[in-house]
Write a structure and sequence with these properties.
3 domains; 6-stranded antiparallel barrel; 6-stranded mixed sheet; Gyrase A, domain 2; alpha+beta
């Protein structure tokens, strides 16, 4: 039987409050994200995908560390960090945002939660925004306090996740709207629950506010969900690429700007409030992006797992970009990928070649997302 101590990169990599439970429930491999272990292997990734889209999975995503911002100037400070207009964001609401640097480059693409008028959490992708925010605050002249709270999220995702939530919290939880949050308790366990998740499926995130209760929370959810087919799982590369969801460091990084990703809706250059990168993004908007994120379908045998390097994309013998995330979708019966190519070549239907680990294969540029492009499943 696998033991929790069988995994180890040293004490500098932190374990989540759910680590022991995930090993008990079959986690066979981990990667590192935000300096923490994240389960990446519960067996067959294709079965994990089918369980996600047909039933429900529970994922340890405590690696989504929170940056907590409080104080009289919290709202002004948070707006300084992002080009998305937050002026109408209500208490209890969540928003997908970008955090940009002075060059307009993306430092993180987190979910922002507003718990109170002057109380925010930034639920992070994989980069050290706690340090960035604390650095920005030093000379901001604003009255804010910035820390990492004792908060560890779980993701409960899939079409039957709502049934599991009803079993746990009662019928009233079904009133929770897409991208809104609620403060709740479960058997004395303090939580924030939101209708969010990294799966493009119906889903919830449960933010544990006391790390000593991680094991109890995991077991309570699994017990409630067994009758609905709930399984322990990991975030699905297949489903997130189908949904066109970005993975930071793969599909975006500090050298990527919002316009290259087609995320113009997350940038408001006309709002009165200033934010870091405003001048640079105004210039990029005027000139137009040099690259664009596209979808690709690769014409080859089913890929055996996702790519682990950036595969070059060529056209007419010239390199025009790179594949950032690729996987075989058993539902679509296609090899699908997210890629970054020169703007002039980012036309639907363009035929290209991709240099995979097995050699060059034909591919064509297609619309993304590949499945449920209007996010009707997640927002239902």
């Amino acid at each position: 039987m696998t033991q929790a101590d069988d995994f180890g990169f040293g004490t500098q990599i932190r374990k989540s409050p759910y680590f022991d439970a995930t090993v008990r429930w079959g986690a066979k491999g981990f990667s590192v994200y935000n300096h923490m272990y994240i389960p990446r292997d519960f067996g067959d990734p294709e079965q994990n995908f089918w369980t996600l889209v047909n039933e429900a999975i529970l994922c340890d995503v405590a690696v989504e560390r929170q940056v907590e911002i409080t104080g009289p100037d919290a709202a002004r400070f948070v707006q300084m960090l992002t080009p998305r207009d937050l002026s109408t964001m209500a208490v209890g609401q969540c928003k997908y945002i970008l955090i940009t640097n002075a060059d307009g480059g993306i430092l993180n693409d987190p979910i922002l939660l507003r718990l109170a008028e002057n109380h925010f959490w930034i639920s992070l992708a994989d980069s050290d925004i706690l340090l960035w925010a604390q650095g920005v605050a030093v000379h901001s002249g604003l009255d804010v306090q910035i820390c990492e709270p004792d908060v560890s999220p779980l993701q409960l995702q899939g079409p039957k996740s709502g049934l599991v939530m009803q079993e746990l919290f009662g019928e009233s939880i079904m009133d929770l709207k897409y991208y809104w949050l609620r403060e709740v308790e479960l058997d004395g366990i303090p939580l924030i629950v939101s209708r969010t998740g990294w799966s493009s499926e119906l889903g919830y995130e449960l933010y544990l506010r006391d790390g000593t209760m991680g094991d109890a929370l995991w077991e309570r959810i699994m017990a409630a969900g067994m009758q609905f087919g709930l399984k322990p799982g990991h975030t699905s590369s297949i489903r997130r690429i189908e949904g066109g969801m970005l993975s930071y460091h793969a599909d975006a990084d500090i050298h990527t700007n919002p316009y290259e990703l087609g995320l113009d809706r997350l940038v408001n250059l006309d709002m009165e409030a200033d934010f870091i990168g405003k001048a640079a993004l105004r210039r990029i908007h005027a000139e137009g992006p040099a690259r664009k994120k596209v979808g690709l379908v690769l014409d080859c045998n089913p890929l055996q797992g996702p790519n682990t390097t950036f595969w070059p994309i060529t056209k007419g013998g010239e390199t025009i970009g790179k594949v950032t995330s690729a996987v075989y979708s058993p539902r679509l019966e296609q090899n699908i990928a997210l890629a970054m190519v020169t703007a002039a070549d980012a036309l639907i239907g363009t035929e290209v070649e991709v240099v995979t680990r097995s050699g060059a294969v034909s591919a064509r540029i297609v619309e993304r997302p590949f499945y449920d492009p209007k996010k009707k499943i997640a927002a239902a």
